[in-house]
Amino acid sequence: MASPRGRDPVDAWLHAEVEPLAPRPGTFERIRHRARRRKVAKAAMSGAGIVIVVAAAVTVPRISSTLFHSHNVTPRLSAEASSKPRPAPARRANESLNAKSPTALQPPGTSSLGTPGSPVPRNFQPTSVTFVSLSTGAVIGQAGTPGHCAIIPTICTSLAGTSDYGTTWYGVSAPLTGAPDGSHGVSQLRFLNAHDGWAFGPALWVTHDGGTRWTLEQTYGMRVTDLETAGDRAFAVFATCTGTGASYAATCSSFSLYSSPADSDQWKRVPVSVSPGSPMLPAAAPSRSAGLVLSGGTGYLLAPSGELVSGPLTGAAWRVASAPVVSRHVSCLPGAPGPDGQPTGTLLAANGGELVLVCTSATSAAGDTQAKLIVESTDSGAHWSAVGTAPAAGIATSVAIQAQDHRVVLATDSGLYLSANGGRSWQLTQPSPDGAAATAPGFSYVGMTSPALGVALPTDAGLHEVFITTDGGSSWRPRLVSRP
Question: SS3 for the chain, per residue?
Answer without folding.
Answer: CCCCCCCCHHHHHHHCCCCCCCCCCCHHHHHHHHHHHHHHHHHHCCCCCCCCCCCCCCCCCECCCCHHHHCCCCCECCCCCCCCCCCCCCCCCCHHHCCCCCCCCCCCCCCCCCCCCECCCCCCEEEEEEECCCCCEEEEEECCCCCCCCCCCCCCEEEEEECCCCCCCEEECCCCCCCCECCEECCEEEECCCCCEEEECCCEEEECCCCCCCEEECCCCCEEEEEEEECCEEEEEEEEECCCCCCCCCCEEEEEEEEEECCCCCCEECCEECCCCCCCCCCCCCCCCCEEEEECCEEEEECCCCCEEEEECCCCCEEEEECCCCCCCCECCCCCECCCCCECCEEEEEECCEEEEEEECCCCCCCCECCEEEEEECCCCCCCEEEEEECCECCEEEEEEEHHHCEEEEEECCEEEEECCCCCCCEEEEECCCCCCCCCCCEEEEEECCCCCEEEEECCHHHCEEEEECCCCCCCEEEECCCC
